Amino acid sequence: MDDRMILALYNRRDEQAIAETSRKYGEYCFTVANRILADEQDSEECVNDTWLRAWNAIPPAMPGCLRLFLAKITRNLAFDRYKAANRQKRGDGELTIALEELSECLPDGSSVELQVEEKELVRSINRFLRSIGERECNLFVRRYFYAEPVKDIALRFGLKEGNVQKILSRTRVKLKNYLVSEGYAV
Amino acid sequence: MKLKQERLFELMNEIDDDLILRAEKSGVQRGRGRRIWLRVGALAACVCLIVGAVLTIPLLSGNQTFANLPDWEDALYSADMIGKLFDAQYLNSASTNAYKKVYVPNSDDLYIDALPNEEYLSVYRYHEPAVAIDDEEFEAFLDSIFPTLSDSLGVQFPPYEMKRPLPSAGVEVLQSVNNYTVLASQTESASSFALVGLTTGSSRIVLDGEAIQIDQRQSDAEVIASLDSVKAKLFHIFGTSFEDVKVERAYGKGFEYGVSSITVYYYNETAHPLNAMNGMPVSDHIEIRFENVSNSKSILGAAKIYYIKHRADASETYRVAASAKMISLADAEMLLYNGYVFGGHSCPICMKQQEKVSFEGYDFVDLEYVFAVDRKNSDFGFPFYAFYQQIGRDTNGNLIYAKTYVPAIEVKGYAEYFQSQERNHTAG
């Protein structure tokens, strides 16, 4: 069933919408959650929570791209679970490594006082991603939006893992410099 | 503003969709054939079990020996048909394979009723009524509601336009004005009208200048009494009236104040036997869904109001398919203690990871009808003994119960069905 029809089911409050969403995007959302949580049962619950959130959000929300709408809900829910689980115990999954890498993008290495609204920061990040090469951007999004393992990214792009790490590292440094140039330095 | 790498990761959620979509499509996955084969292989094993969704390993207590199973070979329905109901409990985030978790502030909120003393129980089956879509009927439905609703909300909806096609036969109207959205549709079975209020400070839906709100700390009777004037307004707007009212509270984990939402239904209990059960009435009704408002911890605001008007008699939609012989509680307990239970979503990985729960000396038992969430799997509604066992307490104080189901009617083919599930599990 195409997304337009699934959204029509949501609009009519027909629970078949959830069945169709699960059928079409269940595995996809599970992958998004499991890359963050690295726990299949937690990821499964997270995906079920995603259906509930979507059910409550649509309507009034009318997503232009249902798949990304669901991916973002799943990512948020999974990350909330990740943070809750890691308050007491430091995680050692793929996301922990990706987060460590992201800290390099911040002007002072760990935290910084920013004088701008987050929306402006998002706009800056979007501008930065559009300013770099397409492959660099794709690698960055795969790594830090989907938390995809470096090994899998290397396989997908026909690169050695070391090369992927170098490209990501260069991009992180570029992002840090870009943010500094945009006035995000302390 | 403190920005840490965690917040940066969260902010990545806001990057432009086209960049994410482009990244999704990028690259060529080498060795794709093998990887996909492995994934499909694992998925196939899951799907085999999802279809049945029944325990194949002794999660409750003891091994299934397939010995001493009751001989109900003349039963009308098979365990295979029962299993098809439980494809997945999509709307229950805590659903697992052998049991699902239920969160309530205290045991009274489980609404446990006395078990019926019956020899036979009804089995229901859903029938899509073949009533033709009727534009004029739908227009009359809408025209009877919009003027009074607009007056009450204090907004003027623009002229509506019917949209086609829908996935099944039907027409739809979508209207938005100020902080309100209206979604109305007509299908073969019903006309429905939904008013959705967006959050605006402390209120959501405001009728005649009065925000529709309830206090979740109040009892059900107090909530119902507090809505008397709202009920009169809604009956006037929708041009209808109902005799009965019930309150359904949804509890969940993670909600600091316990309640995630409260739904109030106005309906006629006598319009269909299933209306006496918990949950949404199957006949005409008005439904108010209350959710949290931004500046209050105990006050919930009306976020959505639905009016469902069936186009065919509800008894025609949910027909009694048969009267099946009810089994005794002792027989149900025998099935329970031997792990012949039905639950929610099921796959081998989940089964291995689910914590075991002993239902020996369970806390409560109730009779409950279960309908398949996905009608493509099954359109039956079967009666079950629902067993509850308390397994903990949530951080918000809610009690956590494990809940599992045993059919309340004679069912044949237990051994064959559970053996087939065990084979699937082994294969997976």
Question: How would you explain this protein's 3D organization?
Answer:
The complex is a heterodimer of chains A (186) and B (428). Chain A is mainly α and 186 residues long. Chain A has helices at residues 3-11, 16-37, 40-57, 66-86, 94-103, 118-131, 134-144, 150-157, 161-184, and one strand at 112-113. The model of chain A is unreliable at 109-115 (pLDDT under 50). Chain B has 428 residues and is of the alpha+beta class. Chain B has two domains: 61-127 and 320-427, no CATH class; 135-311, no CATH class. The longest helix of chain B is centred in the N-terminal third of the chain and has 21 residues, at 32-52. Chain B starts with a strand and ends with a helix. Residues 29-64, 88-96 and 345-352 of chain B have low confidence and may be disordered. The chains are: A mainly alpha (186), B alpha+beta (428).
List the helices and strands and how they pair.
The complex is a heterodimer of chains A (186) and B (428).
Chain A lengths: L2 H9 L4 H22 L2 H18 L8 H21 L7 H10 L8 E2 L4 H14 L2 H11 L5 H8 L3 H24 L2
Chain B lengths: L1 E2 L1 H7 L5 H9 L6 H21 L24 E2 H5 L16 E5 L15 E7 L8 H19 L17 E7 L2 E7 L3 E8 L8 E2 L2 E2 L1 E3 L4 H7 L1 H11 L5 E8 L7 E9 L17 E8 L6 E12 L3 H4 E8 L3 H9 L10 H6 L10 E8 L8 E14 L5 E9 L3 E2 L1 H14 L1
Parallel strand pairs in B: 2-19
Antiparallel strand pairs in B: 3-18, 4-15, 4-17, 5-6, 6-7, 7-14, 8-9, 10-14, 11-12, 12-13, 13-14, 16-17, 17-18
In short:
By secondary structure, chain A is mainly alpha-helical.
